[in-house]
Amino acid sequence: MSLDSGISLKQIALTIGARLEGDPEKKIIGINTLRSASSQEISFIARDSFAEQLSETKSGALICSEDYSDKFSGNKLIGEDPYLLYAKCTKLFKTKLIREKGEVSKMAYIGDNTSISKTASISSFVTISDGVEIHDDVIIGSGVFIGPGSVVRKGTLIYPNVTVYDSVFIGSDCVIHSGAVLGSDGLGFAKEEDNWVKIEHLGKVLIGDNVEIGSNTSIDRGSVGDTQIEDDVKIDNLVHLAHNVFVGKGSAIAANSAIAGSSRIGRNCTMAGCSAIIDNVEVTDEVHITAMTLITKSIKEKGIYSSGTPFMKNSEWKRNAVSFKRLHNFITKEK
After folding, report:
1. Which of 187, 225, 260, 311 is the most exposed place for a label (fewest CB within 10 A)?
2. What pLDDT, on a 0 to 100 scale, did the predictor assign at position 97?
């Protein structure tokens, strides 16, 4: 399939598993929003709030559910979950960081006792330290540093300027975005009178298969024991996972969130943007934490959890803040 000439709707439908209504030979060159799509682009609708744009869009095709199929007169790719179909469709139009298989730049540094697959690709100004293993079909972008004894398994893509410290194990088919730091020390210090004594971090970072880590995210190594990210975890940009954190399979963490040391997150959990979990907390499976929520104790029952205050006019917020500060006194008086 060539993106220059476009991809036929028939091919797109077969690839993403959708039912096609319309011209099977129609060529599509990209994906765009309903508002901005051209006649050569495909768009999608998964929320009622965008329904009014269906009458105005110039999209050459629409990914939608049966509920919207009669509200758009053009070409349609129909399925039960249009958002999932859209996700699959994006893979057809993604321009990857591609180098020839087995191409290792002459401007890369390769240390001693390394094991680098003949199908791995390593760009300029990459540093591969002593004892590193790079498996089949790995792609490493410019300026990446990989520390001693680390392992990168099959099919993983590491974008430019990622820093991987020593003894970090990255699974298969992972994506690590630029600026991510894997294996740095966490905040570990003991107090001796007026001075801090550093606790050396002796553990590893263990990352499972099909994990995606966003740009400028930092994952600390274990202090004693390891920091572990299980398979299929998705981590957004600017997230911090402290030492000895455990994140269970299939969980997702949105941007600007943080998990403090030694906390454990179960499987299939979600953390919305700017949420946080304090140290030594355990969260069970299938817990969903809404934006700006602070978790201060363990959660043993699955469900949706929230904290924080929705926005309001500043004058109203000030009055409510005063009331909140006096709330304990009111309750005490009532008792």
Report:
1. 311
2. 59
Other beta carbons within 10 angstroms of residue 304's beta carbon come to 11
Judge contact between 279 and 260, C-beta under 8 A. Answer: yes
What whole-number distance in Å separates Cα of residue 231 and Cα of residue 247? 9
DSSP single-letter state for residue 104? B
**Six-digit token pair at 144?**
């990446």
Q: In the beta sheet, which residues pair with residue 146? A: 128, 164
Of residues 159, 247, 235, the one with CA closest to residue 206: 247
Cα 59 to Cα 75: distance, rounded to the nearest angstrom: 9
Put simply, whether the predicted model's pTM sits higher than 0.85 gets the answer yes
CA–CA gap between residue 302 and residue 270 (Å, rounded) = 11
Contact 78, 65 (CB under 8 A): yes
Does pLDDT of 153 surpass 60?
A: yes
3-state secondary structure 5-58: CCEEHHHHHHHHCCEEECCCCCEECEECCCCCCCCCEEEECCCHHHHHHHHCCC
Rounded CA separation 269/228 (Å):
15
How far, in Å, CA of 252 to CA of 233, rounded? 6
Residues 6+ apart with CB under 8 A from 265: 245, 246, 247, 248, 251, 259, 271, 277, 283, 287
Cβ proximity of 183 and 237 under 8 Å: no
**% of the chain residues with pLDDT over 70:** 96
| Separation between Cα atoms, residue 146 and residue 176, nearest integer Å | 12
The set of catalytic residues is: 243
What domains does the chain contain, in order, with CATH numbers? 7-93 (3.40.1390.10), 109-305 (2.160.10.10)
Q: How far is CA 197 from the centre of its chain?
A: 34
Mean pLDDT (whole number) for 106-124: 95
